[in-house]
Amino acid sequence: MTWPTVSTSSDDTERLGLLLGRQLKPPITVELVSDLGGGKTTFVRGLARGLGSKDFVTSPSFTLNNVYKGRGGLKIHHFDFYRLAEANIMSAQLVESLKERQVITVVEWGGIVLDVLPAKRLTVEFKPVAASENERQIVFRYPDTKTKIKLFKKLEAEWTASRS
To answer: Model-level pTM?
Structure first.
């Protein structure tokens, strides 16, 4: 199942993350795919807010993993594997995160841990639009169509309403 949309600003990207966060139920893995500066951390900032977090969201490029508290004991584990040639111990931390029931696991630059990531994961891809510095095409993909058709339809409806 795929749902594409367009974000015209960082505020749009953050709002889209917020709307998705309101819908997600743990455990789930969200893989973020884009070039540097593509909007991943901005999206996670909204996602965390949508999951009830009041924590300050930053890129885990140097810390490799940030943990945020969400509503009702929920945790958001935000991994960034950009700087690593090999996952090593971070791969083990990711495996532990994936085992937890009350966790939303978010992964940036997941190419080196594809063998660890679950096949059933939500992938969000950010693609620049050539004519605009701020505009991004954002494509959501999830292999389980029955479960996620409802999610994508609701997300699309809320997204459309928020832009009116």
So the answer is: 0.90
